[in-house]
Amino acid sequence: MNFKSFTLKAAIAATVLAGSTLAVSPAEAAGLKGSLTFTGEAVATPTDIEFYLLNGQADPANGRDIGRFRVGVASTTGDFDPLDGTRGTIKDLTGIISATATNPPAFQAINNFLSFGQNDPFNFTLTAFKFVNERFYQFEGFFADGTIGRGELTTQAQLGGVDTYSASLIATGEEIPTPALLPGLIGMGAAVLRKRKAEENEQAEAEV
What's the predicted TM-score (pTM) here? Predict the structure, then answer.
């Protein structure tokens, strides 16, 4: 292999490496910032949460397995200020895993876990939800624009009725990674190498 070929391969490797770094690193300060707080009613266990409607009733049997929540006013900040006092829907959860579980199964993402309406930029897709200890859960996911969000949910026991819950969700300002870019970069680099190898073989045959 001559020096020119070696240089080409090194350049391709550097390009692929740079591409993979971009693909797995979240964009800096690219998305939503601030905190979203909300409250509602629910029946919660370490493995399941049934979110209630705002009238204190469970979602009917022929419903969509959702509850409703109220957005806080004084405690909602940043880009979420326009949501002060509004209402949204939240989807029920089953099969919640303990935060201390070893080798837990992969979590099935829940699209529009929190929803404010069709195609709303504040809709939130859930990618993890864990039971930490009695009445305390942690969760994470991303908003419709791709901004990563991390939150906590706490339930409060009520006498003679269902429990209430309060939750806070913080937007990190970072977008979810885009690893889908990496296969394309690798494929492009491989194609250049194949083309270069073919040219080298043709040149070698011509010199024989």
Answer: 0.69
